[in-house]
Amino acid sequence: MSGDKKIERICVLIADDHPLVRQGLRAIFDLAEGIEIVGEAEDGEKAIEKAKQLKPDILLLDLRMPKINGVKVCQTLKEEGLGIKIIILTTYDSDEEVFGALEAGASGYLLKDISSEDIIQTVRMVAHGQSLLHPGVAQRVFSVKHNFSSAESDFDLSPREIDVLRSMVKGLSNREIAKFLWISESTVKAHVSQILHKLEQSDRTKAVLFAIRKGLVKKEN
Asked: 126-134 — which CB contacts under 8 Å span 24+ positions?
């Protein structure tokens, strides 16, 4: 009917080597309005093949897959330039796997203890261009020591932008940064936008990872 509200359709490909996990995810998304499972893959090789064939909006991907692991799947699809957003859904959260997946282009990293509601919400948010991390994973990413001595000269960051970047590294939200720095939330958003532009990163998670790689921040032992 012409008066009905149009429901956005998000196409999802599930890649996991456990049939029961794939079945459970299908059951979750069957209850989610506007999300459609367009295919399944039981190993990394098939995940790449079906992603190229089906071109889903979202690939929900386990990390430890037969034949080709999840990080390599991310790297391969990123190189293909298909624009598929990848959410890691796994039981593993070692630094090597977390940073490997995020640096390979994953837009989200979830652990399998997450609720079905949060999985649905993450898919919707990532489909709209956001990056989201499981709280435990975010704590790993943001548990860093700060060393911004070269940030201003190397990347033309203003002192206030460095303050905001420090807060981003701590995992603070825009609202929390605004409260901490005694500035408006709209001002924080403007600073974050400038930081992403100057560091040439597409979102705040990637900006923090970039800062770590460049030595602006260091992982704690």
From this structure: 126/58, 126/85, 126/87, 127/10, 127/57, 127/58, 127/85, 129/203, 130/203, 131/107, 131/203, 131/204, 131/205, 131/206, 132/107, 132/108, 133/108, 133/109, 133/205, 134/93, 134/109, 134/110
Interval 56-110: pLDDT, tens: 999 999 988 999 998 899 989 988 888 899 999 988 777 777 888 888 888 888 8
Residue ranges covered by each domain of the chain = 10-140, 144-219
Q: Are 54 and 13 in contact (CB under 8 A)?
A: yes
Interatomic CA distance for residues 213 and 92, integer angstroms: 22
The string of DSSP codes covering 105-162 is T-SEEEETTS-HHHHHHHHHHHHTT--EE-HHHHHHHH-EEE--TTHHHHH---HHHH
**Token pair for residue 14?**
């599930």
CATH class (in words) of the domain with range 10-140: alpha beta
pLDDT the model gives residue 98? 80
> For 17, what's the count of Cα atoms within 13 Å in the CB-facing half-sphere?
14
CATH code, 144-219? 1.10.10.10
pTM: 0.67
**194 CB-near residues (< 8 Å, 6+ apart):** 161
